[in-house]
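Example 4.3 (complexes with small molecules)
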Amino acid sequence: MASRPRTLYEKIWDAHVVERRDDGTCLIYIDRHLVHEVTSPQAFEALRLTGRKVRRPDLTLAVPDHNLPTTARRDATGKRIPIADVESAQQLAALEVNAPEFGIRLIGDADVEQGIVHVVGPEQGFSLPGATIVCGDSHTACHGGLGALAFGIGTSEVEHVLATQTLLLAQAKTMEVRVEGQLGPGVSAKDVVLHIGGVLRASGGSGYVIEYTGSAIRDLSIEGRLTVSNMAIEHGARAGLIAPDDKTFAYVKGRPYAPKSADWDKAVAWWRSLASDPGATYDKVVVIDAADIVPSVTWGTSPEDVVPITATVPAPEDFADPSKQDAARKSLDYMGLTAGQKLTEVEIQNVFIGSCTNSRIEDLRAAAAVLKGRTKAANVKWAIVVPGSGLVKQQAEAEGLDQIFLAAGFEWREPGCSACLGMNPDKVPPGERCASTSNRNFVGRQGPGARTHLVSPATAAASAVAGKLADVRTLA
Ligand SMILES: CC(C)[C@H](C(=O)O)[C@@H](O)C(=O)O
Ligand code: SF4
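Answer. The structure with 3-isopropylmalic acid bound is encoded below.
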């Protein structure tokens, strides 16, 4: 019997079903589990209390990232410089005890491989195409850029995966977001996903797993694909993924955890078979013309509040939906913006280049290319670059990018989540504005009262130079 054409998501799902239940849910095998310090302490504690072990410590990798300071962590003798925040220090200490106790590899704060968990997974070849990947973190969809089914889970699910290497799940609906055509100059993967967020809105992906397709997606580098997938959660989707291809295989090959020799060939053959079949149908299809995408920026407090950098701040009345009008009013008030104001006239005081969305080597190259021979404006008080991992940092230094950033007036930091969210000392002061390459512009996200504008690395760099949100295409 000829099998029904299936999508990438359906193929990965089917390959991981351990048991189908009568109620339609499935017990799904989990191939990779990433663990960070914030959402794992109670899960390990629960295992300890019930006398359970971790079922597959070899498929589990622990990396602290959220709470680590991005300034020096050890003194000259290698001793830890104490972390002032009590909860952060406790969470980090718990991970450092739990990982070895349960036989899990910990990439610690002093290891060169340490970084943001969503940067480290792909970089180490721990995240693979076709794999089911979970982490107690909403941006786990990031790994979908490699063609993995990757999604965030809560702490009780973290415990379940640690104990059983499985999860009981309901299958999601499928959505294709197809971006066809060529991206224009100055338009990056971040602009693509910001634009998609504007089209889908923050809840448009709810109940779906999104497959990003089309020539503009295929043409992206792996770093760019990880950026796009990273923000699937910002459209409310369960996960986002992109079909693995030769670019993906070249990226994965030779990485520490990647399959080797005969296993590699077998793996590639399987990965190749995963692309959605011709004739496979999605529950919803959204088509976007790449020519419509320009450097984009958020003006409000939801990632869906996206406009072209050339636009003006919208007015609440511009929205048909009364609840959106109300949200827009609140957003404008929080953001200190006036309807009709040109975005390129909005002054900024802070610039953050980093986060699991945009802290890979290509992101740093894009920002450095803009900053080379330029300096930040005097009104930009704080500008930092936070590489996604120690290896990204090392690579950037080998290319001299750190020198470009330093000469431009940026600080060059240790890897971690940093100012993406105010869980560590890197915060944007109340009432101040930040051009940020992160993924969330929620109220208080970068610190109480902080005003976040989500942008691409090139736009962040151009904005630092201009002292205002800036169009990288017309930077003087
Ligand atoms: C702290 C963590 C649980 C959280 C998440 O789930 O995403 C964080 O990474 C974020 O980006 O808001
Ligand atoms: S960098 Fe930001 S979005 Fe990514 S995991 Fe850390 S806090 Fe979450």
